[in-house]
Amino acid sequence: ASGDSLRQSLGSEVPGISWSEPLFDVIQINSTAFSRIFKTHRNLVIVQKGQQSKVYFDTKTYAQNQWLCIVEYQTIEDLPRLLGQYAPVMAYQIGQKEQERYTAILPTKRQSEALSKGFNLNFGLPSEYKLVLDTNRFCWFEYNPPDKEIIKGVFVYEYLSTSSFNSNTILSARDSVLQQFVFGSSEGSYMTTERLYPPYISTYTHNVLEGLKVKGLWKMQNAFMGGTFVSHFLNDTINDRVLVIEGFLFNPGEDKRNSLQELEWLISDFKIQSSD
């Protein structure tokens, strides 16, 4: 079908989760059912016949702060090509818009003095995150409400940069650091990377610095506990270090996509201080 490529892109599985969850929830309706209730959805893709085949992103939306994409096709044969070409762009733009909305409603974040002094880092967290551990080498913040079975945590640490900055070296470094600082409730237990489900690793840049983004599963070695995580490994060549900012989630039996996405947005908002 013409819309398969679009559904595959927007409905692809979120990496770093042990079961299948789609990147976005996709609802397909025909034009006669496009009523007011659907026009107010946050993100819309409208496919319609036009004078020429094109894709554009409209600012004349049906609702405030809405993302709207119009796909026009001259012949039905043009549609698979258009959707296949622009589906990744749509997915990226929707993600950016969702992050913008999340940031707009986020309570004021408090800048961490521990991270400023210990890591030369401007990084803020909502007040619900409490400092659990600060060793000058490793900082651990956590949201762990007493009335809910959910833990959202943030780790910040660094290690000396080496000539090898790749998926093997960063995961080994991660496991080494977590074994030193993140212990479970039972004796001899500690957090580590779950290797049965290989983490998803992609490249990214932060300002001019290159980095690796990791989405995967964590577990407590020698204990029954685990969850998902997202890590940013930044090859900070200016300060001759690898800087790591990581979010982890423990939320058994519940969908993980939205919480994991919010953690990723949270840990993406940082700035390395000038050494001047």
Brief summary of the model shown:
It contains six helices and 14 strands. The protein has 276 residues and is α+β, with helices and mostly antiparallel strands. It starts with a helix and ends with a strand.
Broad shape: elongated
Share of β-strand residues: 25-35%
CATH class of the largest domain: Alpha Beta
Give the name of the CATH superfamily of the largest domain: Mog1/PsbP, alpha/beta/alpha sandwich
The major sheet is characterized as:
8 strands, antiparallel
What proportion of the residues is helical, as a percent range? Answer: 25-40%
CATH-derived architecture of the largest domain: 3-Layer(aba) Sandwich
Tally the structural domains: 2
| Average pLDDT taken over every residue | 90
Alpha-beta classification: alpha+beta
Question: Which fold does the CATH topology of the largest domain refer to?
Answer: Protein Transport Mog1p, Chain A
Provide the succession of SSEs: HHEEEHEHEEEEHEEEEEHE
What does this structure look like?
The protein is of the alpha+beta class. The chain folds into two domains: 4-105, no CATH class; 110-272, Protein Transport Mog1p, Chain A (3-Layer(aba) Sandwich), CATH 3.40.1000. 26% of the residues lie in helices and 34% in strands. 24% of the residues are buried.
Which key features would you list for this structure?
single chain; 276 residues; alpha+beta; Protein Transport Mog1p, Chain A; eight-stranded antiparallel sheet; 26% helix
